[in-house]
Amino acid sequence: MTVKWGLIGASTIARQFVINAIRAQPNSEITAVMSSSPERAAAYAKENGIALAVSTLDALLGSDVDAVYISTTNELHLEQALAAIRAGKHVLCEKPLALTSADAHTMVAAAKAAGLVLGTNHHLRNAGSHRAMREAIAGGRIGKPIAARVFHSVYLPENLQGWRITRPEAGGGVVLDITVHDADTLRFVLGDDPLEVSAFTQAAGMASGGLEDGAMCIWRFKSGVIAQSHEGFTTKFAGTGFEVHGSEGSLIAKDVMTQRPIGSVLLRTAKGEEELSFDREDLYVRALRQFHAAIAGEGQPSATGEDGVWSLTSAEAALQSAKSGKSVAIDPKLRGAG
């Protein structure tokens, strides 16, 4: 069966990564794109070789699409995903799934009731580097994990700044944009759930309207692991990285918090240093392959809807902590849901 995709949002991320990833799958095609601007929809469809351009959700969902990829601004995700589910479409949604974890729960429940696949596009789970780290930890190669550090402060390019740094009502700010990824990546690599977070946020000169453009978080996990994550929009020369330190060794990864299959992972133990090899497959191609398999009844998306609820709940707790100046528990109703 050919899976026909509709794009909800004529976005940069779809153009740069997701369109190619969909087209890389056998029996898969993009048949429609929607933008609220008819002119943008038409130009985008022409530029990317998509047959149908529409400017309303009803028109897209009324076409012959089987699945939708949602990459609109964050405040629109809930309504668009629920409409797609009501129309019987599988949904791959950008993170965060919604503006609140309660709304994200609603999306997960709706998809489950309809027997449809809901995936969260947490691309970093698909990186060979992160899967190599997860396997090394699960295989006991660093002993008992003790602590982790994530360096994910970057410089937000001008073409992506817009609503992310000016519109609180659209779900802007670095926490809903990057901390949400780091919470998911820590959870995935450690194979562990966060229970509590303490966070500071800052406005270092890029964001306005009360939004934050930097954050530093301390996480406590179920196993006792403590982790630190630094997220930012304002650091031009920082570089990214991910370290996990255990009783018998350390994993030190560089340049891995990225959309591209690059970077390195070093395992350091009493035996010395070993660079781990890992596949360099395109992260989005792998994500789409997993999603297509889930549609066919084989396994789950790389990141499920439940995973999206976890990461959003974690990010919400970080924002609450930054506001209150206190450590915040991560919603216990979710424990074990992932």
Automatic annotation (TrEMBL):
Keywords: Oxidoreductase. One of its GO terms (molecular function) is nucleotide binding. Its EC number is 1.1.1.292. Gene3D superfamilies: Dihydrodipicolinate Reductase, domain 2 (3.30.360.10), NAD(P)-binding Rossmann-like Domain (3.40.50.720). It is an enzyme of class 1 (oxidoreductase). Residues 130-251 form the GFO/IDH/MocA-like oxidoreductase domain. It comes from the Bacteria. Transmembrane segments: none annotated. The keyword Oxidoreductase applies. Pfam families: GFO_IDH_MocA, GFO_IDH_MocA_C3. InterPro entries: Gfo/Idh/MocA-like_OxRdtase_N, Gfo/Idh/MocA_oxidoreduct, GFO_IDH_MocA-like_dom, NAD(P)-bd_dom_sf. Residues 4-122 form the Gfo/Idh/MocA-like oxidoreductase N-terminal domain. Belongs to the Gfo/Idh/MocA family. PANTHER family: CONSERVED EXPRESSED OXIDOREDUCTASE (EUROFUNG), CONSERVED EXPRESSED OXIDOREDUCTASE (EUROFUNG)-RELATED. This is 1,5-anhydro-D-fructose reductase. It comes from Mesorhizobium prunaredense. The gene is afr.
